[in-house]
Write a structure and sequence with these properties.
Length: 476
């Protein structure tokens, strides 16, 4: 809808929630709308007006707008209730954020990063050693998602016992594998669950899987775990202070497992796949890694941490990660309009938003896939975010003007991802360990990069339509 025009009525599509407003293939629907109507338009979906803004020069006026006008939390509440069956009495998102934010930053971030390195080694090297010295075949998504989620779970939710023994580590591997496989069954059904389109059989299955996850993550079970993160301790205390029952706490912990672990594994999958399909990129990352190893005090087999200073100084890997996320991170950035307001566009126009309507940014279309900003936007170029002198490239332009928000996998503004420091370190550590310890190759070197599972637009990282078989073996 342009100002003065009648609204577009998309018919009787039922209201299904933020992530799902635009049917199965949201990206192509929004692309068509952008071609017809430009960078801002409003659609009527199931009786609600949703204003879609696709001009990255104007995103800042939304993401830095006060909470009293544009509210972020309605989406979180939707996810909580509709997908994860969580209802929290006296839920105050700002209070929760104030309590949780410090647990993901500074000293606590360092503790998380160190624990993640240890846990990644436990699951990656332990599983590979157990399997023996030959080649193992598995799907690359399965490998990336399972190792990252298992290590992430052990890092946030705690390990079996201290001091770590071979036996306790074997238990950590078995238990975290159980958590991953159970979680993954729910994750696979998530788009359908959120859309309310589960078959009767699926519904039964989801019920059983959720029940099992609630048991695995029950506060009573977690009470026995060692080295729990400050993040978990603070979250549990916060739930207890709100008077949340143990049963509801377990549900909230399953929601948090998804919120904290649902994106890193798929991101690492795409990253490794792009490297395997681009030998020049893989060689550049390997060269950087060799450099890190040549300056380390110990051989990689004895390294118990990867210092933050080293992690922060891997520009090639950083560029590869940014390029991967540019191509595969497709969250909807949604805000509920809670008071009549006007958004100023960068070109001087101003659009009125009515209380009760919704606002949606989709940075995946622009800036991330915008041909004006990125030449050949569909193509993976490992050095796209590198300057000739090896420093990070930060200057990208649209309409002749330099862009502030040129890649937005983490969102931006007040609600930018709080876990990004931890997520970036974790993914770098994972790639580092895989490349340092494993030989890894595609089973079929001519394997094409799979299409996206289109039903996942809006949820965060895209997942492939099917997995890609790889083989790996531990280096002697
Ligand atoms: C590749 C991994 C990840 C990606 C791509 C990602 C992306 C995002 C995005 C797009 C948002 C919403 C921004 C908005 O709507 O404005 C967000 C919010 C958030 N993320 Fe992440 N995230 C990742 C990993 C994590 C991890 C590992 C944690 C915690 C351990 C985390 C914690 C959070 C929190 C707490 C928020 C809400 C911030 C708020 O309330 O203002 N994320 N993330």
């Amino acid at each position: 809808r342009r100002p003065g025009e009648p609204p577009l009525d998309l018919g009787s599509i039922p209201w299904l929630g933020y992530a799902l407003e635009f049917g199965k293939d949201a990206a192509s629907f929004l692309t068509r709308m952008k071609e017809k109507h430009g960078d801002i338009f409003t659609v009527l979906v199931g009786g609600r007006y949703v204003t879609v803004l696709l001009d990255p020069h104007s995103y800042d006026s939304v993401v830095w707008e006060s909470r009293t006008k544009l509210d972020f939390h309605a989406y979180a509440v939707f996810l909580m209730e509709r997908i994860f069956d969580v209802q929290l009495p006296h839920y105050n998102p700002s209070d929760e954020k104030a309590k949780m934010k410090p647990t993901l930053l500074h000293r606590d971030l360092q503790a998380l990063t160190d624990a993640m390195y240890t846990n990644l080694r436990t699951v990656l090297l332990g599983d590979a050693t157990e399997a023996g010295s030959g080649w193992q075949e598995m799907g690359l998504l399965d490998l990336s998602y399972s190792f990252l989620l298992r290590a992430g779970y052990l890092t946030l939710y705690g390990v079996e016992a201290l001091p770590r023994t071979q036996q306790s580590q074997a238990q950590d591997r078995a238990h975290s594998a159980d958590v991953f496989h159970t979680f993954r069954q729910l994750d696979l059904l998530l788009p359908k669950l959120a859309r309310g389109s589960l078959s009767v059989g699926d519904k039964d299955h989801v019920c059983k899987v959720k029940g099992r996850l609630w048991k695995l993550l029950s506060p009573a079970r977690l009470a026995t775990r060692a080295q729990r993160s400050t993040w978990l301790e603070s979250y549990l205390l916060h739930l207890q202070e709100m008077g949340v029952s143990e049963e509801m706490q377990a549900r909230a912990l399953v929601l948090q497992l998804w919120a904290t672990q649902g994106n890193m594994g798929p991101a690492a999958f795409w990253l490794l796949l792009f490297l395997l399909k681009n030998p020049e990129a893989l060689a550049a990352v390997r060269e950087e890694l060799e450099h890190v190893l040549s300056r380390a005090e110990q051989p990689v087999s004895q390294m118990t941490t990867l210092p933050q200073k080293v992690l922060d100084n891997m520009p090639v890997l950083e560029s590869v990660l940014s390029e991967t996320l540019r191509l595969t991170a497709a969250p909807f950035i949604t805000r509920e309009v809670v008071a009549d307001t006007a958004i100023p566009m960068a070109d001087g126009r101003e659009f009125s938003l009515r209380r009760g309507d919704r606002l949606l940014l989709f940075p995946f279309l622009s800036p991330q896939k915008d041909p004006e900003i990125y030449t050949d936007p569909e193509v993976f170029k490992y050095n796209r975010f590198l300057n000739a002198d090896g420093s990070e490239k930060k200057d990208f332009y649209k309409d002749g003007k330099r862009l502030k928000n040129y890649n937005m996998p983490w969102g931006a503004g007040y609600n930018q991802c709080l876990g990004r420091g931890y997520a970036i370190s974790s993914m770098k550590q994972f790639v580092f360990l895989v490349l340092a310890h494993f030989d890894l190759e595609l089973v079929n070197p001519n394997e094409e990069i799979p299409e996206f599972d289109l039903s996942r637009y809006g949820f965060g990282l895209m997942q492939p339509e099917h997995d890609v078989p790889i083989r790996y073996r531990i280096r002697p």
